[in-house]
Amino acid sequence: MAAIERTAYPRFTPSLTATELQRLYAPTEEERTFVTTHARGPAQHLTLLVLLKCHQHLGYLPALADVPDQIRRSLCQQLHLPPTTYTVLEATRTLARYRYLIRTYLAITPYTNGGVRVVIKAVHQAALTMSDPADLINVAMEHLIQQRFELPAFSARDRLVGHIRHRVHQTLYAHITGPLNAIQQARLDALLHVNDGPSEFARMKASPRQATLMHLREWLDRLTWLEAILAPQPLLTGIAHTKIRQFAAEANALEVGDMRDIHPRRCWSLLRCFLAQTQVQTRDQLVEMFLKRMQRMTTAAHEHLHELQDQHRDLEEQMLAVFAEVLDEALLFPEDDPALGEGVRHILTTHGGVATLRAL
């Protein structure tokens, strides 16, 4: 059963600001005329107006006892009635007449006059891609509002949505497991066997580790193992990808004992979807690990290149400094002067000698 707080089902809020009261519950002149035309007496005017404005805001007629006192007092002020004026618990026939008048005035169709068919059609279609009951309830409500149907009680809609969801899932389970032969069924069952160590089902839930060469090879072996279990993708043709992911997430959240306790058809369906999703994730993780490893290698190569460039830059600067001294010496003597040779040899000797400089 879905919690009403997780849905968009309209309901009264604990308190409203003056601006919100004015925007949501202030009656127009036309609505005032409607009230005075169809109800007699101040209390009756208040009752009909309360029901009208609440229906406009909520999409359904609430019980008068559930209407917050803040709204009642605000509407008393709008009708220029004493704040002590209360809505009256009209007779069933009168309330039925008020309900009919409001529906006619707002051009709203009762839920019982076709609303169930609208919910069944909308939720059946949505359940092929959605699983969360709250989301399905919101879809049902959206279609009812679009087609101007009165909203039913939340509990009634919750039960109907749950029934439709269950029926759609049973159809999907049958579609997923129909092509399975006995060998494939036994292989899926084997995933839940616990022998000396953890089950294969638990192994499927493992997370990738650091992108080292050893772990990369381990994850490649994991992909080979997963693909050898079963090739589920061709057998999942026609199932929405979002539904496969939802069933896979459901399996991932269950333990081995929980999986064994559910109906075999549902168990096999969840396992097949989980296997398909795990294979996809493992491939993605392998690519990610490979890219991380390549990035590390590229980074290390860049760092080594920078080190070599720094080393060669120092060497170049040293050799240029020696050459600059040779040029300076050459400026002091003519080219055929023996003293030039002596000066160059002295410079070379100062910097370690010809052999040393050549070795650089």
Overview of the molecule:
It is a single chain. The chain is an all-alpha fold. The chain is 69% helix and 0% strand. The chain has four domains: 4-106, no CATH class; 115-177; 182-301, no CATH class; 313-359. It has helices at 18-25, 29-38, 42-58, 69-78, 92-106, 115-126, 133-146, 154-177, 182-190, 200-204, 213-229, 241-252, 256-261, 264-332, 338-350, 354-359. α3 crosses α5 (92-106) and α7 crosses α8 (154-177). It is elongated, with a radius of gyration of 40 Å.
Question: Brief description of this entry?
Answer:
With 360 residues, the protein is an all-alpha fold. It folds into 4 domains: 4-106, no CATH class; 115-177; 182-301, no CATH class; 313-359.
Shape: elongated
The biggest beta sheet, please?
A: none
> What does the average pLDDT come to?
88
Radius of gyration, in Å, reads: 40 Å
Features:
360 residues; mainly alpha; 0% strand
Topology (elements, then pairings):
Elements: H1 18-25, H2 29-38, H3 42-58, H4 69-78, H5 92-106, H6 115-126, H7 133-146, H8 154-177, H9 182-190, H10 200-204, H11 213-229, H12 241-252, H13 256-261, H14 264-332, H15 338-350, H16 354-359
Helix pairs in contact: 2-3, 3-5, 6-7, 6-8, 7-8, 8-14, 11-14, 12-14, 14-15
